[in-house]
Every structure is written in C-alpha cells, then in structure tokens.
Amino acid sequence: MAGLARSVAAAVLLLSMTSFGFAANKVIIILDASGSMWAQIDGKPKLEIARESLRTVLQSVPADDEIGFMAYGHRTKGSCDDIELIVPPQAGSASAISAAADSMKFLGKTPLTAAVKQAAEALKYTEDKATVVLITDGLETCGGDPCALGKELKESGVDFTADVVGFGLSADEGKQIACLAENTGGKYIQASDEKALQEALVETVAAPAPAPAPKAAEVDYNLVPTALLKEGGEAPKSDVYFEIFKDDAKGTGGEHVDYGYNTVKFHLAAGNYIVVATSGAARAEQKVSLTADKATEPALNLNAAEISIHARPAPGADIDRGAQISIAYPGGASDANYGEVKYVVPTGETKVTVSLGAGEASETMQLVAGQVIDKDMIVGVGKAKANAFYTQGGEKAGTDVSWKVYKAAKKLDGTRDQVTYAYGPDSQFDLPPGHYVMGVDVQAVSTEQPFSVTVGQMSDVNVTLNAGVVAVDAPGADGFKIYEARKDIQGERKQVTYAYGEKMQTTLAAGDYVLVTNFTTDKADKETSFTVKAGERNELTVQ
C-alpha cells in the first residue's frame, strides 16, 4: 500500500508539477474501492493508507487546480456497473475528496477499464487536455481491455494522459495494466510499502522534478532478428520462434521480455538482451545491446539442416496421411508427424523412419549446416480390403466382425505369426508384399482365406462364411447353449456357443445343431434341434 500511497501521493501531488504534466489540467483521480483493499500492509489496511495519502497530498495541490474524484466497487458487491463520479472536477475540491474517501465502503469488483473510459468522457478528453490517475490494487475483473482502451483514448483525445498506480501488484501483474499508461504516454508506478511513499513525498515536495530532457529520435523498431541455417546461409522455411530475455549475466535465466514468430520486429527499452531463436529441434542465442535510436538486426546461426519428408506407400502414389513419420536427431527425437513433415534438425546423424500399417522404411542421413533435403520416403506396401459374406456373392456381414492377418508360412510348430488385426466390414490393411492368411471371426463362425499383396495395389479379400443366423426367443429362459448335432465316438456333442437371458442371436456355420435352453424356474432344460442354412435366418421360439 505504501507503494500505492507513494504513487497516489506522487501522482496527485504532482498535479501542479512537471513529472506528470498536470499543471493547468483537469484531473480525475480514480480509486479502487474493491474488497481486496481491506488487505493489510505492515498491519495497516490498504484502504486506510490510501485515505491518508490522499488527504496529505491534496493539501499540497494549488487551490485553482480542478481535481475530480471517481471510485468503483464502493456500493455493490459483484457488480461491474458500480462506477461513480463522486466529486466532479473543480477547484478547491481537496476536502470534498478526502471526505468522500473517508466515508467510502470497499466491497466490489474491479471494472477499471470502464472507469477510466467514463472519467475520460467526463473530462471531455476529445475537446480539452485531460488527465486521469488510476489507483488500483487489482487487475481488471469485468472483461475490459485496458491496453486497447489506452490506444483508443490516445488516438481520439486532444491531449489525454492516463497514469496508473499499481498498489501491491506483482511485477507480472503490473505489466498487464502498465500498457494503459504507456499507450497514452503516461506513467506506470509500482507501489509497494509505506516507506517508499514517505521517501517519494519528501523528494517531490522538497524538489519538484526538473523538466525532462528532450528525447533522442527513436526508431519504430530497434530489434529485427533473423535466423539462418548456417552463417551467411538461408533462413529455414519452417516456423522460427524468437524469445527475448534480459541479459542478467545468467544466460537465458533473465526476465522474459517478449516473443514472436518468423518475420518479427520488436521495440524494446534500451539495454542488454539475449535473443533466442528456435526452429524445430535447432536453437541459437545471441547477446545484443539496444538503443532507442538504432535498429539492431542480429542473424542467429542455427547450425542446422532442414528436411522435408513425404510418406508414400508406393512409388508414384499419393502421400498417405496415415503414415507416421519419426525423426531421431542428435540429442532427441521429434513428435509423431503424419503424411509429410518439414523439420529443422541439428547437424549430425539423423534417422528418419516412416511406418504405415505393417510396413516400415527408414533412412539414416549425415546432415551438415545449411543443407536442405526434400525427399519421398517409399514404405513399399500394398493394401488389402477385407469383407465377409454369408454366402458367395451374398449378404455382407456387418456385425461383430473381427480380423487377424497372419503370415502364410507356418513355423516349425505349425503356427503362424500374426501381423496385424482390425474390426468391422471394409477393414483395410497396409502390408508389405507377400503371402498372407486372413482370419475372420463373426460371432460363432471362424474361417481363414489365403491372399497375396503387391506393392501399390489394392487386394480385395472377400471371405465366404458359408453361414446363416439363428435367433431364439424363450420367455422365462435363463440362458442357452448350442451344440453341434453330430456326436463324437464318445457320444459327446461339441459346444459351439452360449448366451444368457431370454433371447439370443448369433451367426453359425451351415449345419445341424441342438439348442439347450435353461430356465430360471424348476422347469427342466429343453433341447431343440434345428438346421442353419447358408445365407438364411432361422427364428426359433422355445416355450
């Protein structure tokens, strides 16, 4: 609060001095009366420090200065419309302002942008020279944009200035509202404690600030960085991200000042900075010393190469957006990219791997600074599209269809290696050239079909199930078991599938079966013989 009081005191006291240029101006002081003003600094509420500071400083204002007083958040909790011009700008208003501040409640929100706009309008800022002093201990909470307002008021005002006193705000918070002052040519003052207030009052009362020295001519932008793949070489075509840090002798550990992408220009305060450029996996940094009257144009050497990769399943084929591209470069690896990628990498050994379905292609490159590579990566796969049909040329199976692709060659133990899998009709597989077996499961039916794949070609794998569908309705049933009708030499039937409840529906290979229905009551299990014909539906009712 002392910092606030310092800023308040300095801002108001200097209404007749040159540091804020208030002489012969109409001024409105805006006081933040939100609930956060009850917070304490050194055991004293911030609102009390503000009241005392106003009372002390206003006693030093010349009697003919026209000072007004506005507040927000002093009447209603949670309202963004609680803004009031309590004392209109007038000469000799010191006591009225002090009395208003002393009787004020502190309980609302922080519509600071709207308050500054209303104060400017009350001062007729488009017709006369006008100044607003905002004292706030918080950031905008009602959706306003103080930075945009500052630009608007400066552009449309005759000679409008807003000075902002940040009361107990952190440095980062202060940056969010300092633009309101800076965009109007005003000052932002960080207020922190009562001691600072006292020192400021002594200094400003005893020795008014001298008129500022004429400013040297300033350039619009004093930092224009570029990034190159090598010294004196070309800029990357990929995005470049620039960051600006203060040079505090700790490298990039200094305060983050600004950032931008690609062709970017900065206007920064004179001083020493570190510029960091990042593109893809490459990074460079350079120290610069800036002045206000000269544009510095550093060229940062990324010492890198740029590679453009286009993934294609076969020579001459279109780029496949499902192909995954990974790049392993010295010190790291890229995130997954799909179809094609343009990436900047440090010099050295770089491995590019493209995966598409069960196919994969990779290439290792020795890259040097400034090298630009644009190449197709051919995975070398063909496609297989799989569908299952109840009969040859009949209806397509569309429910509970699952696929497994195996290598055709069997291992010594008679099994095959599984290559990949998928679910549903019209499933597509990207596969290296060769011979395979397509296994399909449709509910209780399983079958296989061999097929072959050629690079760049589509193979339609249409599997005939030779199957039909049985649907059972058995009121009161607990569940079902379905057996093959034929018994083995031991007199046992092979169980094909089962289900629970009163209804079931499943796909079965054509043939003869026995349905065993279990009931929830004492009713005995019931056996029902039935036949499934390929491509047909058989509906059974069991009582």
Describe the structure.
- This protein is mostly beta strands.
- It is 15% helix and 44% strand.
- The strands form ten sheets. A six-stranded mixed sheet has the order 5-4-1-6-7-8, with helices on both faces.
- The longest helix is centred in the N-terminal third of the chain and has 13 residues, at 46-58.
- Residues 1-24 and 200-211 have low confidence and may be disordered.
What's this, in brief?
The chain is mostly beta strands and 543 residues long.
| Count of discrete alpha- or pi-helical segments spanning 4 or more residues | 7
Number of strands: 36
Query: Which percent bin holds the helix content?
Result: 10-25%
N- to C-terminal distance: 87 Å
Low-confidence stretches: 1-24, 200-211
Sheet of most strands: 6 strands, mixed
Signal peptide: 1-23
Domain VWFA: 26-205
Protein name: VWA domain-containing protein
InterPro entries: VWF_A, vWFA_dom_sf
